[in-house]
């Protein structure tokens, strides 16, 4: 099992000629083939409006959501189009339990939490692990996937180790046996101005093969109110190539390539909450109802040097084979998928301000920004220190996935079973170079933003920080999940288990050699070796008391490998273990026009490391005595009222706390809700016109990890108007039309992300 990345590459290139040869032979063989839908592909035939009836991410095979004993919410391509979403985060904000968790407002930095825990938008695709971005720059682009699935809570039986909040699964675009071309142009104005073009071409090759190519290019610029020249460029490009060969009776070969690159000038202004500690009583925890008067600098004023151009590239390769067959009189399908992912690039440089403080006319420091009121008459200047960090990150991974899906049983008992095997390898590394100019720089005289990064750090000695170091690991997993149906699907039991094994070798970088080479140079001798294994479980039940109504419950687990040693016992740390207990209801009423999922859940993560005082009082040690608890109620609804009105709505009330009892930073502690509705004119003089309205309301959330201050609740309203006729459409999306100024995400009181000013996008599409 000790595969190296070079072996994965060899297998990829060795399999390519076989794949192409298979396409040619199968094309000659099946000129009049009849093709059946794969059990690993969802069907949209029964979808109505924004409602989705099937998913793959929660079971790894396409099953009706009403038969799944967990909360699964899907976002369709139609909805993403209506909100003009260019990234997953922009569409996911209309799903309950999902919250924006961006650490800065730059493009390509989309981040979300799910039920209180960080959930990547680039780590899972088609029910399998994937990696579609660099470490800190995701570069997500909705043009390159068809829909999104949110699988809530632990799902270790399918995904092994993952965040307790759940999994966000992208469903790939497919090459289909049809000919079409989609052209899209989008223009945005406001804080960020950009032009984005998408060309999507699908061509049928003979009777049973197809090729699809998707090219997207986004050229952007963010303009700052205090600069006269240009702005900060933000370019994100992507290419997808997909080839499919289907053959009679089901089954297919396919290959897929996805390449993306970004060049983003990461100019931005840290939003400092000025003077929030002034007049604060002991024990008082303020709730900040933010507007410009609360901040040292306006949110559209740049205070970083020019030319902070960060670059990165991601390559994703995939080859797969799928074949149905009969075994013991039952229908089975085997899917083999090989993936290889390579990404390189990061925030380079990343400019960070620190020690921001007020000064009087004599240059005397009056106090930190949080301790001095903006109205203090003594203030003559605000100054901050700057550091420039050049991050160097890489990720190299490959895996082979084998899934076996089968349906079998008797007249009274039916099984839908998936057996999965996976073996993989990863190589990762993260480090950075750093320069810190001496002194403090004025934030008011306009000098810093006129400098380039090179001018800011000219003559400053370079330092190298090994940071996370390098890591190589390999892993293996095997699992099974069986959905057992009784009494014509009125009662369904879900039973599953999975075994995961992994090992890793980690090390650091040589500081002196890295400085001399201006590249991270590994220390060959490893500093750590770890290995571990874990079983995960799932038990679920679905009961349908009446047609189109399902009651469900589940008990499921996941885990996280933990490296390190308990100094008190000398034993390795145990794995963190996550568990969920959830009950809920689902409906597919009115011929699938009223689709609802509502649930109550209780989640717990144990073996969390916390600091404990040594018996002699001399200091602290790390011990696995922490427990993180999350409980909540969530509801998601998609309702096609009639042929004119489509609605989607979500409500969540989540209580999520860390191991010391504090609310998670950025996660609402009070109810949050959202809705979006579209009205389409189907007759009369306005036939083809449509209009929509959306609203996202965030509850109060902690701005820092210590719960020292909270952001007030508030929301943003969006509008949509458009016209569609025959093969073309034109629409205008306006965002935050009421000009909400509140905080939508935060790292701490010196890095607050506020809602963008009112902005718009115009989208035009043509299909033929």
What's this, in brief?
This protein is mostly beta strands. It is built from seven helices and 40 strands.
Q: Would you write up a description of this structure?
A:
The structure is a single chain. This protein is mostly beta strands and 768 residues long. It is built from 7 helices and 40 strands. The strands form 7 sheets. It has a 22-stranded antiparallel beta barrel. Strands 3-9-10 form a 3-stranded antiparallel β-sheet. A hairpin with a 2-residue loop joins strand 17 and strand 18. It starts with a helix and ends with a strand. The N terminus is likely disordered.
Map the helices and strands.
Blueprint: H1 5-29, E1 54-55, E2 63-64, E3 72-75, H2 77-82, H3 88-92, E4 98-100, E5 112-114, E6 117-119, E7 124-125, E8 128-129, E9 147-152, H4 156-159, E10 166-171, E11 180-189, E12 192-205, E13 209-222, E14 232-246, E15 252-265, E16 287-288, E17 309-327, E18 330-345, E19 350-359, E20 365-368, E21 381-409, E22 413-435, E23 441-442, H5 453-456, E24 463-486, E25 491-507, H6 511-517, E26 528-546, E27 549-560, E28 576-588, H7 589-592, E29 594-613, E30 620-640, E31 645-657, E32 672-680, E33 689-698, E34 701-702, E35 710-711, E36 714-725, E37 728-735, E38 743-748, E39 751-754, E40 759-767
Parallel strand pairs: 16-35
Antiparallel strand pairs: 1-2, 3-9, 4-5, 5-6, 7-8, 9-10, 11-12, 11-40, 12-13, 13-14, 14-15, 15-17, 17-18, 18-21, 19-20, 19-21, 21-22, 21-23, 22-24, 24-25, 25-26, 26-27, 27-28, 28-29, 29-30, 30-31, 31-32, 32-33, 33-36, 34-35, 36-37, 37-40, 38-39
């Amino acid at each position: 099992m000790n595969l190296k990345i070079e072996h994965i590459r060899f297998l990829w290139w060795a399999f390519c000629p076989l794949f192409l040869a298979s396409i040619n032979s199968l094309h000659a063989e099946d000129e009049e083939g009849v093709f059946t839908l794969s059990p690993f592909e969802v069907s949209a035939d029964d979808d109505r409006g924004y409602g989705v009836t099937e998913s793959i991410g929660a079971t790894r095979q396409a099953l009706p959501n009403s038969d799944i004993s967990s909360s699964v919410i899907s976002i369709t391509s139609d909805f993403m189009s209506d909100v003009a979403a260019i990234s997953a985060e922009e569409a996911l904000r209309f799903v309950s339990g999902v919250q924006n968790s961006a650490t800065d407002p730059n493009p390509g930095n989309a981040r979300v939490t799910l039920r209180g825990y960080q959930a990547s938008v680039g780590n899972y695709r088609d029910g399998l692990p994937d990696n579609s971005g660099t470490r800190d720059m995701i570069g997500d682009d909705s043009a390159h996937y068809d829909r999104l699935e949110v699988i809530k809570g632990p799902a270790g039986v399918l995904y092994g180790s993952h965040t307790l909040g759940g999994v966000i699964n992208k469903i790939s675009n497919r090459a289909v046996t049809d000919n079409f071309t989609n052209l899209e142009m989008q223009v945005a104005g406001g804080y960020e101005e950009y032009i984005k073009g998408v060309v999507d071409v699908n061509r049928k090759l003979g009777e049973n093969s197809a090729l699809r190519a998707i090219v997207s290019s986004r050229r952007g610029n963010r303009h700052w109110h205090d600069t006269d020249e240009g702005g900060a460029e933000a370019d994100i490009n992507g290419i997808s190539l997909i080839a499919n060969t289907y053959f009679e009776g089901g089954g297919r070969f396919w290959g897929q390539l996805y390449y993306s690159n970004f060049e983003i000038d990461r100019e931005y202004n840290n939003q400092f909450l000025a003077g929030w500690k002034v007049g604060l009583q002991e024990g008082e925890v303020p709730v900040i109802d933010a507007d410009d008067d609360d901040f040292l600098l306006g949110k559209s004023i740049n205070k970083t040097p020019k030319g902070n151009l960060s670059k990165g590239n991601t390559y994703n390769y995939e080859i797969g084979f799928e074949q149905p067959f009969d075994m013991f009189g039952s229908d089975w399908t085997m899917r083999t998928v090989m993936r290889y992912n390579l990404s390189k690039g990061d925030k380079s440089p990343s400019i960070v301000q620190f020690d921001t403080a007020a000064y009087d006319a004599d240059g005397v420091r009056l106090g930190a920004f949080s301790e001095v009121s903006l109205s203090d008459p003594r203030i003559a200047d605000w100054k901050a220190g700057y550091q420039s960090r050049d991050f160097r990150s890489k990720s190299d991974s490959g895996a082979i996935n084998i899934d076996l899906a089968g349906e079998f049983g008797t007249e009274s008992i039916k099984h839908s079973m998936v057996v999965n095997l996976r073996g993989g390898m990863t190589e990762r590394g993260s480090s950075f170079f750093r320069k810190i100019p001496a002194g403090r720089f004025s934030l008011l005289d306009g000098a810093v933003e006129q400098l380039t990064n090179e001018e800011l750090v000219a003559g400053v000695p370079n330092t190298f920080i090994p940071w996370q170091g390098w890591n190589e690991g390999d892993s293996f997993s095997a699992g099974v999940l069986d959905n057992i149906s009784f009494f014509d699907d009125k009662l369904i039991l879900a039973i599953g288990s999975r075994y995961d094994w992994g090992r890793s070798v980690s090390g650091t970088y040589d500081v002196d050699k890295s400085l001399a080479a201006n590249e991270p140079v590994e220390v060959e001798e490893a500093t750590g070796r770890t290995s571990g294994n874990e079983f995960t479980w799932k038990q679920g039940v679905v009961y349908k008391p009446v047609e189109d109504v399902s009651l469900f419950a589940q008990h499921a687990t996941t885990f996280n490998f933990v490296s390190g040693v308990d100094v008190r016992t000398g034993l390795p740390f145990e794995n963190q273990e996550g568990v969920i207990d959830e009950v809920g209801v689902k409906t597919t009423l009115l011929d699938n026009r009223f689709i609802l999922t509502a649930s109550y859940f209780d989640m717990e993560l144990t073996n969390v490391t916390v600091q404990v005082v040594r018996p002699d009082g001399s200091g602290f040690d790390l011990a696995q005595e922490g427990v993180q608890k999350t409980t909540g109620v969530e509801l998601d609804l998609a309702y096609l009222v009639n042929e004119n009105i489509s609605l989607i709505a979500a409500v969540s009330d989540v209580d999520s706390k860390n191991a010391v009892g504090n609310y998670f930073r950025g996660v609402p502690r009070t109810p949050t809700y959202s809705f979006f509705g579209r009205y389409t004119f189907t007759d009369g003089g306005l036939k083809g016109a449509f209009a929509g309205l959306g609203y996202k309301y965030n509850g109060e959330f902690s701005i820092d990890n210590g719960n020292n201050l909270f952001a007030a609740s508030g929301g943003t309203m969006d509008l949509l108007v458009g016209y569609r006729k025959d093969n073309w459409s034109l629409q205008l999306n306006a965002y935050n039309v009421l000009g909400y100024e509140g905080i939508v995400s935060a790292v701490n009181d010196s890095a607050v992300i506020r809602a963008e000013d009112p902005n718009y996008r115009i989208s035009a599409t043509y299909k033929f």
